[in-house]
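Problem 12. The chain below contains 154 residues. Write out its predicted structure in token notation.
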Amino acid sequence: MPQTADSLVVFDVNLRQGFYTKEILCNSMKRCNILKINDEELVTVSRMFGYPGIDLQDKCWILLGKYNLRMLILTCGINGSYVFTPGNVSFQPTPKVEVADTVGAGDSFTAAFIASLLKGKSVTEAHALAVRTSAFVCTRKGAMPELPPDLRSL
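Solution.
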């Protein structure tokens, strides 16, 4: 499918044991303009690509530049999340919630973030809504709980 200049092509890394290679990851990152990765996946990817000994933010800046990404989203569980764009980084802390289940947390984050961008929200607004949505999902069992009205208004 041809891309236009304003197309959003998202690669949510989701490493699963034995079902990825460096070549697959590299080709996927070349084809996207938004990369979503969590802190554990970033450690694995950076080891595969030869820069394991630097901090998480520097690894993100390297990937952002190397693959000419519009955005790199780094989620770090209870330690918050970051959205890197060329020349800028947004940080959002993770709200303290009573966790029932983390299944669906990353996918709900990505869905809320991208839906917000498509509705014309800023990166900062999209990031804040993604964090709230993901935190809510963690308070319920299962990957797809019904969202409250304030989060459904995407």
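Discussion. The chain has two domains: 1-91, 95-154. Students who got a different answer should revisit the alignment rule from Section 12.3.
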